[in-house]
Amino acid sequence: MPSSLHVIGHQQPDTDTICSALAYARLKQAQGVDATPARAGEVNPETQFVLDRWDTESPSLLDDAAGEQLILVDHNEYSQAVSGAHDATIVEVVDHHRIGDIETSDPIYFRNEPVGSTATILTQLYEEANKTIDAQTAGLLLSGLLSDTVVLRSPTTTDQDRSIADHLADIAGVDIEKYGKELLQQKSKIGEKSPREMVLSDFKEFEFESHQVGIGQVETVEPEVVLEQREAVLAAMDDVATERNYTVFLLLVTDLLKEESTALIAGTQIDTVEDGLDTTFTEQEAFLPGVMSRKKQVVPPLEDAFN
Amino acid sequence: MPSSLHVIGHQQPDTDTICSALAYARLKQAQGVDATPARAGEVNPETQFVLDRWDTESPSLLDDAAGEQLILVDHNEYSQAVSGAHDATIVEVVDHHRIGDIETSDPIYFRNEPVGSTATILTQLYEEANKTIDAQTAGLLLSGLLSDTVVLRSPTTTDQDRSIADHLADIAGVDIEKYGKELLQQKSKIGEKSPREMVLSDFKEFEFESHQVGIGQVETVEPEVVLEQREAVLAAMDDVATERNYTVFLLLVTDLLKEESTALIAGTQIDTVEDGLDTTFTEQEAFLPGVMSRKKQVVPPLEDAFN
């Protein structure tokens, strides 16, 4: 079978990852490149809401990327990529995270910007390519942008995100605050999940020196729904940490309205995490005032602490 | 001493690296960012010709980047970066090579494109930032572009390089072919060098798996000047390979007019290089028809062969 070109986001896909894969595959197609959107895992309820709202089919699941050609969106490290990525050819990267461990033999297009969402960068790529964005694509891109920036409230939000959100909302014909509230309500639908589903629903794995570290995040307007099940949640975290040989499993329970997080922790080397986050865990729990962004406020200090 | 922000290219700087550092520092300054151009080694004669021609001071030498903030241009791997780069903070990358081993804790601007020169990308960045390019800066950018693409003849040259070269030549007020010929003559001034200077004047180091591999290139219209000194050149290569513990030291002697290269080799694992380049070395020498680009035609197959 000849290899195909897939536009694909990270494992445990979120709305920015799925919408970015869809929107970038469309741009590539408009430029005459035969690219297909793909996903590396199950679509979460918020993303399903977005796909239904904008009448768009989910990208198809890619089980094994070995031998394929990949355009990575919204991630640039192998630990977060679709399985088989090590044996695939990475032909492009568009992302807004730290620079990870992707290396290539050939020069490729690699565009990473410190903005609030990958959708923000893709909107610029449409403009640079002089391709118009239709209302449906604008709706998808806006959803990725608003989801990743918690409706422009996250500290990762830049002026560029704000002005691009306005532009996309115009094309899509929605009101940012009103549509954003609908999205936030979807993010909060966590009460129906099992503790294991809860801790893994927005989950990323990092390699800090030789340590595997898992960091999950639950963004919600009702943190008490999670924290009331503390013991069951911690047991689920313990199970995952043991199965996957994690040095640390950290879960951020982020209150979207108060803009703060409660962290739960499992694993060993808790003191390293305490150093990194400048906090103290009492009974595996710590309060992190002002912390909303895993990427900007948690990953960099933890990486430093482990190094 | 507080850390400063330096825009800096690779070791053994060439014209694209020096001119890119100068032009990007100017763009940053025009955007209100206090960035200084820097270099990681001696300016070669071609680049000195360019600096004189466009009445521009050489960037200052940065001996040790530890503790500094760096914008890397024209490279994105530590083995090619200024010494101390591992202990510096990389805040941006603009490049046109394979993706290397730079990792960061924070999200940064990272722009790599598969085009003929870093100067090509920087010209676009000026346009995207809506900043005008003055004649002097256009002359520097054009020099980087023409030097890296061997006056648009290298197989790395894209349509984008050609159209941007036209645009820059207009602003700078020079004729591409005529100015290009002057540049090529500078590249060819190699007869005056010692064998050791010759093999190290345009030199890059790569890490393929656990192997340190050095690849030098002499681009010239008179390859016989180098090849007549074969034994002295091979002795210099042997010395360097031993001092620096290289598995392989490969030197490409590239005939700019015939668009072909003769490769000389020192070190061990010559069979791996033969596999990678699909050639046979006889008395440490092999003919490589059509090979002009280290980056595109030599590095990728060698990396594959060593992996």
From TrEMBL, chains A, B:
Molecular function in Gene Ontology: inorganic diphosphate phosphatase activity; metal ion binding
InterPro entries named among the record's database cross-references: DDH_dom (IPR001667), DHH_sf (IPR038763), DHHA2 (IPR004097), DHHA2_dom_sf (IPR038222)
Pfam families, alphabetized: DHH, DHHA2
Names of the cofactor(s): Mn(2+)
Keyword Cytoplasm: no
Catalytic activity: diphosphate + H2O = 2 phosphate + H(+)
UniProt key word Manganese: yes
Enzyme class: hydrolase
EC number: 3.6.1.1
GO cellular component, one term: cytoplasm
Keywords on record: Hydrolase, Manganese, Metal-binding
Highest taxon, organism lineage: Archaea
Domain DHHA2: 180-306
Name under which the protein is recorded: inorganic diphosphatase
Record organism: Haladaptatus litoreus
